[in-house]
Amino acid sequence: MSRAALLVLADGRFPAGGHAHSGGAEEAVAAGRITGAESLEAFCRGRLATAGLAAAGLAAAAALGLDPLALDEAADARTPSAALRTAGRKLGRQLLRAARATWPSPELSALAAARPRGAHQPVVLGLTAKAAGLGPEDAAYCALYESVSGPTTATVRLLGLDPFEATAVLARLAPAMDESARCAVAAAHRALDVGVDALPRAAAPLLETGAEAHRAWPVRLFAS
C-alpha cells in the first residue's frame, strides 16, 4: 500500500473538478448560516455526520470490492436532490477521467463503460483508491476530507475568511473525521455480508433543499 498515492488522491490539485463546487457553502453563506469560522465549523460538522459519512461509506465499500453499480444505485437513493445527484455524477465523471489516466485499471474502465454519463463521485473515489493500491480506510478519509475541505476553501473565497482560521477549523475537525472514518469502514465491512443497506444513510435535508435553491440562481460562483 502506497501512502504517497493517498497524498496524490487527497490533494486538492488532483484534477477531479472539486474546486468548482462549494459543498453547499455558497448557499449557506447567502442564507446567513455561515458567517465566519465558528459557523463554518458547525456547518462542516453537520456535513461530516450526514453527507460526508454517507460518501465515506460508499467509498470504503467500493475500495473493499462491493459491486460499484449496486453502490451507484445506493448513492442515488441517498441523494434526494436532483441538483446534488447531477453534481455527484459530474464530479464522478471528471474523477474517473483523472483516475484512468493516473491509475488505469479494468474496474475503472468497466465503470466508465457502464456509466458513460458518470457514476457518483464516492463510488468512483473508492474504485480509484483500490486501483491506487489503497484500502477502505484511505478511501473513507479521502471522502471525509473532501466533504469539509471543499466548503472551507469556498468560504475563504466567499467571505474573505482568514485562511489561517479556515485551516484551524479543519484541524479541529480531525477527531470527528477519525470517528466518521471508523464508522464508515465498519459499515462497509458489514455491507460485504448483508448488502448496501448496511451503509450509512443519514439525511441532510437543509443541504438538499439548499442545493435545489442554489441551482436556480442566475449568477453563482460555484457549480454546487
Concise overview:
It contains eleven helices and no strands. The protein is mostly helical and 224 residues long.
Q: Which key features would you list for this structure?
A:
224 residues; 71% helix; globular
Structural notes for this entry:
This protein is mainly alpha-helical and 224 residues long. The chain contains eleven helices and no strands. Helix 4 (68-77) packs antiparallel against helix 7, helix 5 runs parallel beside helix 7 and helix 8 packs across helix 10 (174-194). The radius of gyration is 16 Å and the shape is globular. It starts with a helix and ends in a 9-residue tail after the last helix. The mean pLDDT is 94.
List the helices and strands and how they pair.
Blueprint: H1 3-10, H2 25-30, H3 37-64, H4 68-77, H5 82-102, H6 106-114, H7 121-131, H8 136-159, H9 163-172, H10 174-194, H11 205-215
Helix pairs in contact: 3-4, 3-7, 3-8, 3-9, 3-10, 4-7, 5-7, 7-8, 8-9, 8-10
Into which percent range does the helicity of residues fall?
over 70%
* Proportion of residues in β-strands: under 5%
The chain-level structural class is: mainly alpha
- Globally, the shape reads globular
The stretches of 5 or more residues where confidence is low (pLDDT under 50) are: none
Number of strands: 0
The string of secondary-structure elements, in order, is HHHHHHHHHHH
Give Rg in angstroms. Answer: 16 Å
Major β-sheet profile? none
Number of helices: 11
Overall mean pLDDT:
94
The CA-CA distance between the termini, in Å, is 33 Å
